[in-house]
Design goal:
- The complex is a heterodimer of chains A (440) and B (224).
- Chain A contains 14 helices and 20 strands.
- In chain A, helix 13 links the parallel strand 18 and strand 19.
- The longest helix of chain A has 23 residues.
- Chain A is globular, with a radius of gyration of 22 Å.
- Chain B is α/β, with parallel strands linked by helices and 224 residues long.
- In chain B, helix 1 crosses helix 2 and helix 4 packs across helix 6.
- The relative contact order of chain B is 0.13.
- Classes of the chains: A alpha/beta (440), B alpha/beta (224).
- At the A-B interface, strand 1, strand 3, helix 7, strand 4 and helix 8 of A face strand 1, strand 2, strand 3, helix 2 and strand 4 of B.
- Strand 1 of chain A pairs parallel with strand 4 of chain B.
Chain lengths: 440, 224
Amino acid sequence: MGDPTRRMFAPEIEAMPRSAIEQLRDEKLLGDIIPWAYERSGLIRETWDAAGITPKDVQSMDDFAEKVPFIDKDAIRSYRDRHNDPYGGLLCIDPADPATRGVFSAIFSTSGTTGDPTPVPYAGRGPSMLVREFWELGTRPGDHFMHCLFTFRGPGVHETIRGIGATPVFVDHQPEDIATLLRFSRELRPTGWYTLSGPLVMMIEHTAAATGADPAEDLASYKGVIFAGEPIGPRARAKVEGWGLELFIQTSLGDVGAATECAEHDGCHFWEDCAYVESLDPLGTDAVGDGERGELVSTTLIDKIAPLIRYRSDDLVRVTHEPCACGRTHGRSWPLGRKGDEIVVNGVSVLPGDVWPAIENVDETSAALFQIVRTGREMDALQLRVGYASEGPKGLADLRTRVADSVAAAIGFAPDIELVENDVLLRQGPPHKIPRVTKG
Amino acid sequence: MAVTEEYEAVTGAWGVGRVVVDGVITPWPVSEADIEGDIEGAVPQLASLGIAEGGLVLIVSLLSHAAQVFPFEQAAGRLGALYSSSDRSPFDAYRCASLIRQLRPTVVMGIDHRVLDGLEEAGRDLAEVFGPVPAVAAVDHDAHARLQAAGIPARWWLALGPTSAVQPLDDDALRYDAARWWVEVDDAEGDLVITDLTARLTPCARFRTGVRGTVPEPGRLILA
């Protein structure tokens, strides 16, 4: 376990020189993952054959950028449906092979926010890379660690908590368990927490109001909390920071992992010994420069059960490969939104993040549970479905006007507002997020 | 063959689970030795539902049940089977139905009334969702009755303090791990009480389970 006072869990990896990062990437990607996946993954084989290339054609990262075809969620679902293969052609081992027993142990699933949950084969082999993030929160061996999640991502997280010598405390990411979360926080004094989400912030507020609990007092032991699922709005951030919590934002890395802030809070670190991250023109295939808006395209460097290669995530990001002030040398990303979530109203681009603070600013809709109702990328009017906790002192018509005025002040034109109770939208979760765009 | 990166795990306390009786929540720390024993106990329980080499069990639970659920997840592996997971909540009922359709599990265990509420609110027919599954185990009386009414021959997976009992396919009684637990009827209340037979991180002596029933012989119990 090493020196518990050190800043990084694995400094020899987290702060390795960029030249070493790139050499490691080349070895793993070109020498291992690509030939392995092409030989065994039905989807990769089919996609590469259609593009007319084989691993022999990919001898350098320039070859990779120029020749390797993309895959995306639709390609996985299409393969699944055409071949009656629940793993979408990604599985690289035979579950019936006795030699794989203990390697391929379980099947988890994606959140299902945008459709049917996709089964994800699980290797089931101990702690994950999140040990680095959990250590960065300030948790150390012997501490309790709040594990507040759901079941469909498997036991990897609690094995990771034990991997830094801490003890997981299991709590549900559900409204019914908030009182217990506050109680166990008070009694067991955990130092780390994975994860907090927007809906959970709302639930804590409600529980505190109903019971008289003081979250600042109950949550005083935490050194760091990972916030994940969706972006956090300014009002919710102020609320949580008012409880004395230091948030570490985590964002997805295109289904090959996650990227998480360090204590500098200057971008989310992605681990380049685990994933190769590209930022490409959202409408094309050219790379965009560091700091420019691009679509995150990810390739695993470690998953040989169901490897994703050049997976177009639909996530819009800004990326840098400059070293962080914390001393880590791996890249960082800033999530900007979902490509598929963008609409253009009379020539004006609108993403959920553009209206988020305006909806948060109205007391009755401060949970920021809302959806853009999308009939196409280009629309004549912005239609919003907005969740409310109460009708307010003057009823729904007045609330609708106040929400519309707040949004109009933010984006320059008035939206059409449909009000629904918060529960209507929460039911569309998984518990840590809701779909932010819905078909009209 | 190294298929993923990994770090060496440390040994010691496995985690802080919980025991819930009549709505009262008691935090319940367990050790790695406790978990290993519980895995050994879960293997025959899972096999009694029909899980064998090449099978798949879908476990419907919540993370707060981890100390009781993890042994069954690992037991599946020891039987040469796989497991999958969905949350025991109305909001996640769609996942339960989707995974049944996509993965065709041999056993689904952990269905409660809230999951059935979620399915029925979504307009799903219970017989259609669960009909293709050879064994479905419920965790409360309401879910058990509704599954039976839908024509599903529901079995039981019942919380019994820090452990649980499973109703096999071929028995009306439920089975618990008699090598590690002593279960008896509390004469005053008629509830089953449970005592550990092996040293555990959290001692358990005549703990009231909130379950009413009889124990015809060690290892078998019949619900009242």
